[in-house]
Amino acid sequence: MTRTSTVADAVADVVAAHSPVVFSLVGNGNAHFVASLTSRGHRVVSVRHETATVIAAHSYALAGGGVAAASATYGAGFTNLLTSLAEARLARVPVVVIVGGEPTTGSRAIDIDQIGVAAAMYVQTLTVGRANATAQTELAYAIAARDRVPVIVTIPYDLVDASVDTSVEPASPVAALEQEAVLRAHELAEAPDIERADATHVAGLLARAQRPLILAGHGAVLAEAGDSLRRVGDRVGALFATSLMAHGLTGSPWDLGIAGGFSRPDVAELIGEADVVLVVGASMNLWQMRYETLLTHAETIIQVDTRPGSTHPRVDEFHRADARAFAEALLAELTDADRDGWRGSVTMPGADSRPFEEVAPDGRLDPQAVITELEAILPLERSITQDNGHFMGWAPRHLSAPDPHAMLLPGLALHCIGLGVGSLLGVAAARPDRLPVLVTGDGGFLMELSELDTLLREVPSALVVVMNDAAFGMEVHQYGVRGLDTDAMTFAEVDFAALAVAMGGRGAKITALSDLDRVQEWLDRGAEGIFVADVAISPNVVADWLRLSNRYNGVVEVSA
């Protein structure tokens, strides 16, 4: 006997067709939906806290896996995922989130206004019914892909096991896309066609420049503009730099690396020598502009973006356009052979040769020395994600990544911590051919320690590097230096290696660089399972980018 298809089944059919993996925590409101997926053999990663559902799907998308789905129940399940939902919304990452909702008969004592809460975060909710479950779920994927935003699909609790109504022909998803009342407050219309006169003008500026620089951001990654921008740079002899989210975009030997607070000082100095700068798909926010110290000497700054206008007062010309289309238009104007340009006179920075002392005066490791050593140990095919914290600038500065999808920093949009392990789940699912690596802090890792169990169950191989200073280092170095008491910012040191071993993983306490031999041995033996490297770093080594931040904010340091 054939089972009648239910509303939950109809939603699951669409999700299974679009998302190879679903990150979920099951509860009353989504149990039927999740069971429909697992009963057909579809991959569902069961996490330990709902925060991990959305950030895992978010990171899956950024790592190149496509639009993933997240799922949680109504009420507490919904509220638990709000932090990672807000991060996905602010970072503009497409995710479809399937949640339970209040019954169609009205709210219960346990219900909250989930649609209103989501709307306050500029996240749209589509509620499914017996006649439109398929169409509404297809619509959610269409909106997520079109606008690069998370979209919620709600299944009312009294409809989860209700049979679908095929007697009514639902509107097509494409038609609904235009008809639905969509929260568009922060969305953008399609970029206009490029005027040839604009391309000719910008091409001329670049060709005449003595020290041209092309600075690419995440928008250039989304537009797949890396190859075109590289060819533009080759035509005019430009150097390249990128935002964190475009790390390694052009693959050029003339790439200076990350521009902004995470730049090495010598790289930032060289970027500052550019006379004409083409900024493509980069926000030019405060951190990217190195607290307004990065492009102070540029004579002309041209910004190309799909936003409606320039994002920084230093921009001299703004062109609203798709990054790849604009680069191709420039190539059509730059018909002369490649020239040396700035490349003929510049001395490119090599690998960071500054000697980092192994240990700080307090006897604990210098985190810069640790990350530099890891660069030599880790395989080239790696996917790196980080949590937020004082440590977060050292990995982008000292660790290489094979492409822009292999260096993530979830939590940066919302400025939150505790998303790293959930992110690692998504990265590992998107790129199983690469070693997943998480660099996290002790405070953030403690917030999501339960997800270590999920890692052990779901990920065959991953490295977790805990930068352990027994403190919320960001707060210590931002507010302790202002004279605030730091008692609530520090805590007893936790042995994360022992915790990993107790839960069935591998681990080592790293108190000397030679202890990283344990990581090397694990790699040499096939990197099986989860390895937690608990690195005892000095709380007294302060990142230069944080000192820049303090100076920018007028902080006079009153203590070391």
| Count of beta strands | 18
Main sheet makeup: 6 strands, parallel
CATH topology of the largest domain: Rossmann fold
Overall pLDDT level: 93
Give the CATH architecture of the largest domain. 3-Layer(aba) Sandwich
- Percentage of helical residues? 25-40%
Query: What distance separates the N and C termini?
Result: 74 Å
By DSSP (H or I, 4+ residues per run), the number of helices equals 22
Total tally of structural domains: 3
- With strands numbered from the N-terminus, the spatial order across the biggest sheet is 2-1-3-4-6-5
* Broad CATH class of the largest domain: Alpha Beta
Shape: globular
Q: Structural class, from secondary structure content? A: alpha/beta
List the helices and strands and how they pair.
Blueprint (H helix, E strand, L loop, with lengths): L6 H12 L2 E4 L6 H9 L3 E4 L4 H15 L3 E4 L3 H5 L1 H10 L3 E7 L12 H7 L3 E4 L5 H15 L2 E7 L16 H7 L16 H13 L3 E5 L1 H5 L3 H11 L2 E4 L12 E4 L6 H7 L4 E5 L19 E6 L11 E4 L2 H11 L33 H11 L4 E5 L7 H5 L8 E2 L11 H11 L4 E7 H6 L3 H8 L2 E8 L4 H7 L16 H7 L3 E5 L6 H8 L4 E8 L7 H9 L8
Parallel strand pairs: 1-2, 1-3, 3-4, 4-6, 5-6, 7-8, 7-10, 8-9, 10-11, 11-12, 13-14, 13-15, 15-16, 16-18, 17-18
Helix pairs in contact: 1-2, 1-7, 3-5, 3-16, 7-8, 9-13, 11-13, 16-18
